[in-house]
Amino acid sequence: MKKIILLLNHSFPYSGLDFAVHIAKNQKCKVLVIITGALQMKDDNEYGFISDIKATETDYTASTDEEEELTKELDELKFVKDVFDNNRVEFSVKTVREDIAETLIKESIYADVVICRKDMEGDTFNVNDFISSAHCPVVLMPEEAEIFTNMVFSYDGQISSVHAMKQFAYLFSWMQPRKVTLISVLPVNILQMEHDALIREWIVLHFPKAEIVVLKGDIRSELVTFVNNISESLVVMGSFGRNAFSMFFKESLGITVLRKTNASVFICHT
User: Fold this and answer.
1) Contact status, residue 227 vs residue 257, Cβ threshold 8 Å
2) Is beta strand 264-269 parallel, antiparallel or unpaired with respect to 180-186?
3) At a CB cut-off of 8 Å and minimum separation 6, what does 84 contact?
4) Nearest residue to 184 (alpha-carbon basis) of 207, 200, 163
5) Tens of pLDDT along 178-223?
6) I need a labelling partner for 260 at 20 to 30 A (CA). Which of 65, 125, 154, 221 fits?
7) How far apart (Å, rounded) are the C-alpha atoms in residues 63 and 70?
């Protein structure tokens, strides 16, 4: 991995900033911070990961609302820059206020992964518009997400789920020594996973400490229950093709996981 895109707006959680720094320091890669609107950072004592970095404390006394907003935005931008400078991470910043979705789609062609809040939106931008056309994998993070320590690979026997696992393995190769869980939820009348021997061989070759869990029942309820019992988790999921990928944000398994768990989700399409 050589380049990460980190999307920020006024409601972006600090976990996304933490995660970008964490990846960049492990992979020695560059971060492109794309700001899609004015930022409004939380109080300093709410920032819990990079504890040695303090937000700028400023008394805003500008004579107009516009001047105050500009002053705050500059201070908040300085905070973001200080995070990367203090962690010695190479980065650049781009502010996009018009044609946001189109700009992000173009930038994603030349990036390895995008980090984004799952419900990020603004006056002219909604994360759904971008994700359905992104040209690289995307990590969607809930507001209170922690940097994940547990990885859950959702396998349904389809090419798309294997493709997502492969992309994750290639991009996050330093995590391969860690334990991961491959979960497959089967109908009660099905005895084993599709391509059972092949997926068991693949997962152990790439993640030697992998655990394989096969459950029976309704995939939505079983997967949600399983993920909710694992703290600080990231769920790796795939979707086949762009049309099917756009369905991810409707009544799909992926959106169910995002809505009913506090897990982050790594999603990519073939």
Assistant:
1) yes
2) unpaired
3) 21, 24, 31, 33, 90, 91
4) 200
5) 889 999 999 999 999 999 999 999 999 999 999 999 999 998 999 9
6) 125
7) 12
Distance CA(229)–CA(226), nearest Å, equals 5
Is 3's pLDDT higher than 90? yes
CB 178 within 8 A of CB 151: yes
**In contact, 27 and 3? CB cutoff 8 Å:** no
Torsion of CA 187, 192, 194, 200, to 10 degrees: 130
Residues 6+ apart with CB under 8 A from 65: none
Size of the chain, expressed as the number of residues it contains: 270
Task: Judge contact between 140 and 118, C-beta under 8 A.
Answer: yes
**b/e string for 116-137 if b means 16 or more Cβ within 10 A?**
bbbebeeeebebbbbbbbbebb
- pTM, two decimals, is 0.82
Q: Which amino acid is at 112?
A: D
